[in-house]
Amino acid sequence: MSNQYLCEKLDVLKQISLLKNLPEYIVSNLNDNIVLRDYQEEAFKYFITYYENPDLVKNKQVHTLFHMATGSGKTVMMAGLILYLYMQGYRKFLFFVNQTSIIEKTKENFLNTSSIKYLFSENIELMGEQVEVKEVENFSYCDDNAINILFTSTQKLHLDLNSPREIVLQLMILKMIRLC
Questions:
Q1: Whole-angstrom distance, CA of residue 135 vs CA of residue 117
Q2: Of the spans 9-18, 111-120, 156-165, which averages the highest pLDDT?
Q3: What are phi and psi of 74, to 5 degrees?
Q4: What pLDDT score does 118 carry?
Q5: Looking at residue 135, which CATH number applies to its domain?
Q6: Does the pLDDT value for residue 99 go beyond 80?
Q7: CB neighbourhood size of 103 (10 A)
Q8: Domain annotation covers residue 50
Q9: How distant is the alpha carbon of residue 171 from its chain centre?
Q10: What is the pLDDT of residues 19-65, one digit of tens each?
């Protein structure tokens, strides 16, 4: 099995019913209006199986890519994966894209509880505690009991990483990379 691509290894695990189950807390903490599609549930199962199987994670680094069409629910996947990774101990999430218009739309989906496209349930409850989703400007101070998201563009991220005045962001990103 070692010369196979990861997707082939995961397909074998699916065929013999060894994919991890979708944790209930993901579904229960997404907005009630969100009904996961079969392929989204399968993508979650593939990710969780990959993440939790040390034989599949090369060099102990988790690098994944979700190749999905426009309108297929990538942002919903991202919300569910944030919930999963929060349960694994992650508290800091970096969201960056090429266009600032996408950032504003995504902020609305992640932060505005009154938005029709808000992704999470009214009250996020993980490990018996209420969890907030907070936007942060950098990772120098984050709430250890919250989902902290830094929204930025690739251009701004590049400037922040190469600007001596923003050394805090640079150090936090390097720390996050080392944790992966």
A1: 17
A2: 111-120
A3: -65, -40
A4: 95
A5: 3.40.50
A6: yes
A7: 17
A8: yes
A9: 21
A10: 788 999 999 999 999 999 999 998 899 889 888 887 766 666 676 77
Does residue 43 form part of some domain? yes
Contact 139, 172 (CB under 8 A): yes
Give domain status of residue 1, yes or no.
Answer: no
pTM, full prediction:
0.81
Supply 172's token pair.
């936090």
Question: How distant, in Å, are the alpha carbons of 81, 86, 110, 152, 163 from that of 93?
Answer: 11, 10, 12, 11, 21
Q: What is the total count of domains within the chain?
A: 1
* Phi, psi dihedrals of residue 126, rounded to the nearest 5°: -130, 130
Around Cβ 157, how many Cβ atoms within 10 Å?
A: 16
Provide the domain limits for residue 117: 6-179
- The total number of residues shown for the chain amounts to 180
Q: What is the DSSP letter of 21?
A: P
Q: Distance between CA 52 and CA 146 in Å, rounded?
A: 23
Q: Pinpoint the alpha helices (H) of 34-152.
A: 38-52, 74-87, 100-111
Residue 26's φ and ψ, nearest 5 degrees, are -70, -55
